[in-house]
Amino acid sequence: MRRKLAAGNWKMNGLRADLAELDALASRYEAPEVDILLCPPATLVAEACARSGAISIGGQDCHSGQSGAHTGDISAMMLKDAGAGAVILGHSERREDHEESSEDVRAKALAANAAGLMCVICLGESLEQREAANTLEIIGGQLSASVPDTATGENLVIAYEPIWAIGTGLVPSLDQIGEVHDFIRTQLERRFGAGVGRSVRLLYGGSVKPDNAADIFAVSNVDGALVGGASLKSGDFSAIIDALNDSA
Ligand code: PGA
User: Fold this and answer.
1) 91 catalytic per annotation
2) Beta partners for residue 63, in sequence order
3) Is 70 one of the catalytic residues?
4) Does ligand 1 lie within 6 Å of residue 205's CB atom?
């Protein structure tokens, strides 16, 4: 059985005062039945780890190297040292803003796993690609190139995030979400065998809100969500976590 996962991505939002939102989550979920992961900006990771209780803390990116002359970058080991347990890799905003390729993402994933971090690797098609009926081809290509051969159900989570659904309020139909998640599951089973392929958790991300979460969590092979905007406020994120818990 895959344990459900609610993951929050604060992106470039959050000052120290905003950790009050984490405090609220930590006191509400002292022994949650689903896994909860919050990924604040790097400046808040260490302090978040010190007060997160049963909630795991993750980074939003890491470098593929261990250390060295890479001004402004952060290594996986640094995140681990700060107390993080996971890192988001290959988010479409990284792929676009920083021209990260799937090969870059795979190198980062290897570094993250070597440091003992679980990776949440993001995949997603653009609106153009969806309209050209290329979604599965794009997702398949990103999946095979971004995920390292060493993947397991413990060190890898995949997040399907259609680029056109991120921060837009647009959400694919439940059938479209199911089609992509079933496809990712099949690809993982083919590549890694049924054992590993069935143990990797698949999250949906892109405009997940309290009012659509329950429907999305009922879709086959959706094991949770990667939540951006609605993870910034503990009230909204809690409603999504509760919907996931009810679906479990
Ligand atoms: P959103 O972002 O929930 O604000 O659409 C999701 C994400 O980018 O992870």
Assistant:
1) yes
2) 75
3) no
4) yes
Does residue 100 have its Cβ closer than 6 Å to ligand 1? no
Take residue 226 and report the two structure tokens written for it: 């990667």
DSSP three-state, residue 115 = coil
pTM above 0.90, yes or no: yes
Ligand 1 centroid, distance to 234 Cα (angstroms): 15
What is the pLDDT tens value at each position of the chain, 248 positions in all? 899 999 999 999 999 999 999 999 999 999 999 999 999 999 999 999 999 999 999 999 999 999 999 999 999 999 999 999 999 999 999 999 999 999 999 999 999 999 999 999 999 999 999 999 999 999 999 999 999 999 999 999 999 999 999 999 999 999 999 999 999 999 999 999 999 999 999 999 999 999 999 999 999 999 999 999 999 999 999 999 999 999 97
Q: Is the CB of 90 under 6 A from ligand 1?
A: no
Ligand 1 centre distance from Cα of residue 10 (Å): 9
Decide: 236 in ligand 1 pocket, CB within 6 A. no
Any ligand 1 atom below 6 A from CB of 8: no
Closest-CA residue to 230 (of 220, 219, 216): 216
Pairwise CA distance, residues 92 & 69, whole Å: 25
Catalytic residue among 21, 125, 161, 179: 161
**Residue identifier of the C-alpha nearest atom 7 of ligand 1:** 228
DSSP 121: E
* Structural domain boundaries in the chain: 5-247
Q: At which residue do the structure tokens 């653009």 appear?
A: 126
Contact criterion met (CB below 8 Å) for 160 and 147:
no
Return the CATH number of the domain spanning residue range 5-247: 3.20.20.70
